[in-house]
Every structure is written in C-alpha cells, then in structure tokens.
Amino acid sequence: MTQIFAHRGSAGTHPENTMQSFFEAEKVNADGIELDVQLSKDGEVVVIHDETLERTTNGKGFVKDFNLNELKKLDASYKFKTFLKKPTIPSLREVLEWLTGNGLLCNIELKNGVFPYPSLEEKVISLVREYQLEDRIIISSFNHYSIVYCYRLAPEIQIAPLYSEGLFMPWVYAKSIHAGAIHPKLRAAPDEIILSSMENGVAVRPYTVNKKDDMLRLFQINCSAIITDYPAKAIELRDGVS
C-alpha cells in the first residue's frame, strides 16, 4: 500500500514545519512526515523551509543570522492566524523527541543548497542516533553531495536524492550513490519511471502530490509513497481505492 508522507506536516491545513502541523499528521494516521532543516547562528538544527524568515514567520532576515532562542520567539503561524496557541519554529531535537512516542517515519530534507551549513550532516546524524531513530529516518536533499556524505557517515540511515527534472534511469543513479529511494518532483515521475524504479528495488516518493487525480493515479500503480500537503485527503482516497 502506498505510504502517505505529510509534507512539512499537514501543510495544507496547518502552519508548515510546526509541531501543530506534525501533530495533525499523526492524528490523521499519516505514515510519515517530511520536514526541512537548517542551522541557526548558534549551530542548532532548526526546522524551517526557507533560508529567510519572511514567508512563514513574523521575522525578517536569514535563519542563519539568529540564535535558536531568538528564532523561538517568532510567530510561525503566518497565513493560519486562527490558532489559539502561537506556533513556533521547532528544533529538530524537539521533533525527534516527539517521534520516539509514535511510529511515524520521518523524511529530513537538508536545506543546504543556498548556504553550505558547516556540519549540518554531522549534527543531524548525531541527533538521529541519539534518539535511536536510524531505521525510521530518510535523509534527502537537492544537494546530492550532501546525502552521499551522509551515507558515508551513517550507512544505516536511508538517503534519497531530490530532483525536479527528468532523469534517465534514475534507479541506476540512485544505486550508484547507495540511495534506497528517489524523491522526484511529480512531473518528473511518469508511471513507467516509477514502475521501473520499484522493479529495480528503488522506492519512489514523488512530491508534492495534492490533486485528487494525481493521488489516484499513484495509488493505482501502488507507488511506494507520496509526499502531500493534505495527508487526511490522501488517506481517505487511498483507503477508498484499496
């Protein structure tokens, strides 16, 4: 059965990359969550997608220029202003600690394409090992050098390259870098690529699958997983198909 990963949590209905968004993913019985990590000024691994603060918080400037304590004071509810409790930017430590109390998988995307955060890989792996979550974590990035480095540091943690354009025989590429999966943009994942990858032992988790027709197409071919902003909708559709 196709697994459902909640993109930045249940980002279609809750403030993305916040604990509230992750709680919702668990509540609707998603199989996993997807989140993004960067480093604060004081070297803490924080969960936020953009390198800048403006889109998702009431802050201004680059994430890397603020300490964790300063980032924690920001309101991360942005377009979702109806929440009574102000959501904050979580640290990866907070999320991993919460994960020890459930069975969710977690895809950690390293956001190190714009700024090459020093030691981001080491810090993420160290936290994952501290909470003994190696078998439930997937590390992905558009920076493929970074995930290869992660594999060398921690071959027991699955890695998956993110990409947005069509790749020729992506399962061959995945195997060449010891990746157990590929995470293509939806448009770069036609049925024949998905099926060939899975036949060759490489899981496929396309992003960001939000439309009903796309979800149904992927469920019908039993795609490994989808990454979606609307896990509740996806689960309802999937369970209807199966």
TrEMBL record:
GP-PDE domain span: 2-238
InterPro entries the record matches: GP_PDE_dom (IPR030395), PLC-like_Pdiesterase_TIM-brl (IPR017946)
Gene Ontology BP, a term: lipid metabolic process
Record PROSITE patterns: GP_PDE
SUPFAM superfamilies referenced in this protein's UniProt entry, alphabetically: PLC-like phosphodiesterases
GO molecular function: phosphoric diester hydrolase activity
Protein name: Glycerophosphodiester phosphodiesterase
Species name: Falsibacillus albus
